[in-house]
Amino acid sequence: MTQPSAWHYISKVTLRDAWDELRGVLAGTIALGIFALLLIAVPYGIIYFTGAPTFVSNGYSEFSDFLKSIPWWIIAPALISAFLWLARGQRFQFPELDFKLWLIIATIQFVAFAGFAFVPWWLMVPAYYVITSPLLYLDRLIEIGREKLEQEQQSERNQE
């Protein structure tokens, strides 16, 4: 038996389930946006737009210069090693993607990463989350639909 597509699972989700999940996603997005605005965007925005040579902007410049001086062949293995250490014992499962779902994900990622070329990073980091959060919502709807389908199949087996 072949596994149903993601769209089949989404068709099992009721509007009530989708609305409940959407409220959670929106609440998380708003909370993260406010946090990022207070912690990152406001101070860096003031520094960026005033052009004031403050301790933070000078310190950032020195730190940025330091990071640029480290060769990529040191940074890449260090990041991979850190990821492997943090992910130890975890199981990763990639979702089954049909062409339509892959196209949606790829388009959203291209739009989000294109923003980094035109918008300052301190503004784009929270915007990236806002742009890509519908993908998290879509993934959660697929999971809800998969659970509902399993419940339907279990109830059919119990009736037999």
According to DSSP, the number of beta strands is 0
The tally of domains stands at 1
- Tell me the number of helical segments per DSSP (H or I, 4 or more residues long): 6
Multimeric state: single chain
Unreliable residue stretches: none
- The H/E string reads HHHHHH
> Nearest-angstrom radius of gyration?
22 Å
**Overall 3D shape:** elongated
In what range is the share of β-strand residues? under 5%
Largest sheet, in brief, is:
none
Mean pLDDT: 81
Q: Would you tell me the structural class of the helices and strands?
A: mainly alpha
Helix content: over 70%
Gap from first CA to last CA = 20 Å
Short description:
This protein is mostly helical and 160 residues long.
What are the main properties of this structure?
6 helices, single chain, about 160 residues, about 80% helix
Can you walk me through this structure?
This protein is mainly alpha-helical and 160 residues long. It has one domain. Helices cover 82% and strands 0% of the residues. It has helices at 6-11, 15-50, 55-69, 72-86, 99-118, 121-159. Helix 2 runs antiparallel to helix 6 (121-159) and helix 5 (99-118) runs antiparallel to helix 6 (121-159). The protein starts with 5 loop residues before the first helix and ends with a helix.
